Amino acid sequence: MAKFGELLKSWRQRRRLSQLELGITANVSARHISFLETGRSRPSQPMVMMLARHLDVPRDVCNQLLSLAGFAPAFAARAPSDAEMAPAQEAVSWMLNRHAPYPGFAFDRHWTLLALNPPATALFASVGISKGDNLLAAYLENEALVSALENAGQILEHTLTRIRIESAHFGGDDVLDEAAKQLAAMLPDDVATATGPMPPFLPAIFRMGDMRLSFFSTIAQFGSAEDIALAEMRVELLFPADDATKAVLN
User: Which of 9, 48, 98, 189 maximizes the CB count within 10 A of its CB?
Assistant: First the structure.
């Protein structure tokens, strides 16, 4: 069980917990945590699931822990067309359709666009982006997108922070880490720094010819998702950040 113990210890350390702290949280002794990490004790399936929950590991990592402990994986990554996914897919469509006339879209763990409502389709089409494209790749490679963002430096810096946080949640992600490295390298030296109180939100400001659109966003996730793909899906809804944008869209 040494490999199970190594992975358990690695995630405990990622979450900055001592054996005692994890033991208290999971209602087991620090000694038992130590025995699990060194392979002296074999975990039960409920124990693996409980520790994974308290360590807030991604579902695919929980599957790894289960497999290393000799148990079957608990979580699947179903295709969007799977019949069991229909209620969730309908919920995403409901959110996006009713968010019009404001843009809304869904994307996966690596920021690949999974669904867009008509306003988002039109907004992204103006810079050559459509369903199935990757937003991180677009920030890195799509000059039209970066040029259209009036405050590109601030948006790229904000995106860099977001993907670093997301990668940390997943215990490191090669795709996100590589994107973060490239984004950090392309950030301008003159990104504006706050000299006073921060505003309530950072808008993304698009300039398209004579039209200027300013948006802030909210991000939603499924709170009780047990499917891997569904748990990693996010829905981002853009809202007008000023009256001029609201007037254009309405």
Answer: 48
Classify burial at 211, counting beta carbons within 10 Å of its beta carbon; exposed 0-12, middle 13-18, buried 19 or more. Answer: exposed
For residues 217-228, give the mean pLDDT: 93
pLDDT band of residue 24 (cuts 50, 70, 90) is very high
Q: Please measure the distance between the N-terminal and C-terminal CA atoms of the chain and give it in whole angstroms.
A: 61
pLDDT-derived band at 52, boundaries 50, 70, 90: very high
Q: CB atoms < 10 A from the CB of 155, how many? A: 19
Residue 114 and residue 233 in contact, taking contact as beta carbons nearer than 8 Å: yes
Q: What is the pTM of this model?
A: 0.87
The 3-state secondary structure of the chain, one letter per residue: CHHHHHHHHHHHHHCCCCHHHHHHHHCCCHHHHHHHHHCCCCCCHHHHHHHHHHCCCCHHHHHHHHHHCCCCCCCCCCCCCCHHHHHHHHHHHHHHHHHCCCCEEEECCCCEEEEECHHHHHHHHCCCCCCCCEHHHHHHHCHHHHHHECCHHHHHHHHHHHHHHHHHHCCCCHHHHHHHHHHHHHCCCCCCCCCCCCCCCCCEEEEECCEEEEEEEEEECCCCCCCHHHHHCEEEEEEECCHHHHHHHC
pLDDT of res. 189: 67
